Amino acid sequence: MKHILMTGFPGFLATRLLHALKQKYENAHFVLLVHPSQFEHANDRIKDLDNVEVKIGDITEETLGFSEGDRVLLREKVTHVFHLAAIYDLAVPQPIAEKVNVEGTKNINQFVQSLHHLEKYVYFSTAYVSGDRTGLIRETELQMGQKFKNHYEETKYKAEIIVQELEDVPFTIIRPGITVGNSETGETSKFDGPYFIMRILDRIRLMPIPYLGKGDVLFNVVPYDYLINATVYLSDAEEAVRKTFHLTDPNPHQARDLYRMICEELLGKKPTWTISPRLVELGLSLSFMRKFFGVEKEAVEYFRCPTQYDASGAKKVLEKGGLTCPDFKDYVGNIVTYYKQHRLDQDKKIHIT
């Protein structure tokens, strides 16, 4: 019988991953390591689920907040660990990112190494551990002398290094691209990342719409259902042991085309002129502008980084399971429709400072 421990619950991806894993492993027992601040919310999420228990903990503590009794029991029981807990905010201050993303992962690693029956450790990284690198980024590459656009990227990079350095641990590292809503329903938890395009377009809908610069770089987005399904498959694939996978779009669109498709779906018209991304970034340096548009200025940088993420390793393994990444043009209508239906939902807006 599989005993699965997961961090990051009741976050959106962890919640969806829990349901997907329960479908695959009907008799598995799940332990969810949940921060005290999320305990009530987590319990609400699992009230109709069997074989799922919430344990209060904190990944920034060396003991993870577990009692000695819990640690002894878990060492004997846990077969799979899925580590999703992290600070994902592009504007996160360095000390917070370091404590949660790096120290937290170090503590999870120590716990993983203590398990007597571990079958798989799945660590959620990000494709953007590539930092400011340009050109083709391979799944086998990590420490390439890169610098970073923000503390989120840098601390996820540091965390991935210490996972890769684990000896005799059957890990699988997941590097997602920028994640958007469900390809079929459009559902998402937060309007961040690419959704900032929709927020800006909403604000300027009555004026002639500009492109954000040339937009000739590739902009890599993936729907969360592909990410979840791929993670479940890789967590059980022998070929995935001690491997790293880019869960990115193997055929991404240029930023300009992605922007145009969103504009056409949201406003029913195409952009007709071009504004410099530097000018947009300068405007977003002002707090009142960020709050007006509901956008972090750090997001603009991803529209001008000439990077291509090689996903050949992931593609080779996932095709055996019948899994392929949907093309953005085939689901853009679904994510824009969901945005239009929920654009006023305060719970889906990100906090802008």
Automatic annotation (TrEMBL):
It comes from the Bacteria. GO terms for biological process: long-chain fatty-acyl-CoA metabolic process. GO terms for molecular function: alcohol-forming very long-chain fatty acyl-CoA reductase activity. Residues 7-231 form the Thioester reductase (TE) domain. Pfam families: NAD_binding_4 (PF07993). PANTHER family: FATTY ACYL-COA REDUCTASE CG8306-RELATED, MALE STERILITY PROTEIN 2-RELATED. This is NAD-dependent epimerase/dehydratase family protein. It comes from Bacillus timonensis. The lineage of its organism: Bacteria, Bacillati, Bacillota, Bacilli, Bacillales.
